[in-house]
Amino acid sequence: MISVSRSLTQPLGDDNWADEIQPDTASATAREPSYFNFVTPEYFATLRTPLVAGRNFDQDDTRNSQPVAIVNETLARRFFAGMNPIGRQFRTYTREKPDPWIQIVGIVKDSKYQKIREEIKPTVFLPASQAPPGADTEDFEVPTAVAPAALISAMQSAVAEVSPQTPLAFHTLAEQVDDNLVQERLMATLAGFFGVVALVLAMIGLYGVLTYAVTQRQIEFGIRMALGAEPGSILRLVMRDVVVVLSAGLSIGVAISLVSVRILQKLLFGLEPRDPLTIMTAVCVLTVVALFAGYLSARSATRVDPMVALRHE
Partners of 98 in the beta sheet? Predict the structure, then answer.
């Protein structure tokens, strides 16, 4: 165990507290919503959230001292653009009455607190020692060097010795990420399944079309072989036609995909709509499938008996 921290909520947690704030800038004439979290000084180190400016909370930040806050980069950019947010102030409102000014003492990197796919929201971190009475939901963050399951029993026993009635629920950040991506994983699984089905059907279709094309040219191949053509030349002839068809199909397919990919853009996460690696992978797979199907057809073309082909004519 490295450290333990306490907070109102955590990244991708279930509890979120939003409130309107008004910064002390001259241009701020309206209140804007922001997320709030109440944390202990160890919170940022526990979750490895870098402090990019200012200071962390300390023991001097008490309920009776000057209210202070640490904000994320998004809030700093939105409310204090072109200014140094450290030392600036903002306030909230309770029943339309202004609360005391809160001074910004630090800035941390952005984090996502509701959905992985969400746009980063302005977030305010207040010291847990200054949390109002309503902020009573508590999460504990415990980073470990071993499997989390190995510590659950020990932590349950430790809490039971202090407060036997306190209910506990354990989950890892990885589990929260997985739960947050259930819809995306389902879509990816379905897309992968239908992609494999489409690939198999494409291979069968290509093989059928090329076999039919070879059958239609059976007499031509028979005449060529009767005149002394080697099986290798027939193979190259068929494969050349396959390459021509493949090149035309890939060109048209890539062009259509680049135009229509915006329809699927909302289903993508962490992947650009026109990701070169994804496109090249698809092209390579389809190329291998087409060449394999063409090769099977070409092999059948080299086995044409010239006498059978001429007799058939």
Answer: 93
Listed in sequence order, the residues at least 6 apart from 70 whose beta carbon sits closer than 8 Å to its beta carbon are: 44, 51, 54, 56, 57, 104, 105, 106, 107, 108, 124, 125
Instruction: List the one residue out of 230, 243, 225, 220 whose CA is nearest residue 293.
Output: 243
Structure tokens, 264: 């699927």
Please count the other Cβ atoms lying within 10 Å of the Cβ belonging to residue 9.
21
Which two three-digit tokens encode residue 153?
């029993």
Structure tokens at 81: 């653009």
Q: What is the pTM of this model?
A: 0.63
Helix/strand number for the chain, H first, E second? 9, 10
Task: Report the interhelical angle of 182-216 vs 276-302 (nearest 10°).
Answer: 30
pLDDT digits (tens, 9 = 90+) for 262-300: 666 666 665 666 778 877 887 888 788 778 877 887 777
**What are the residue ranges spanned by the domains of the chain?**
5-143, 181-312
